[in-house]
Amino acid sequence: MAVRPRAAKSYFDGFKQCLLFDFSSPFAAMSLDKLLWLAMFLLLGLLASMLATALQQAE
User: Fold this and answer.
1) Where are the beta strands (DSSP E) in the chain?
2) pLDDT greater than 70 at residue 10
3) Domain that holds residue 23
4) Number of independent structural domains in the chain
5) Which residues of 34-49 are buried (b: 16+ CB within 10 A; e: fewer)?
């Protein structure tokens, strides 16, 4: 029997719930979707830092 993810009590709890995902549950797709968003934000941060270093070197 699948266990539903409980409601997040705090902001940190929600973040922890976003990172922990169980492949055996039907909610795995939802968690993988959140993981995809996290990866996209990390990639955006990496691009921003690369742009910042490029601008510093251009000076």
Assistant:
1) none
2) no
3) 5-57
4) 1
5) eeeeeeeeeeeeeeee
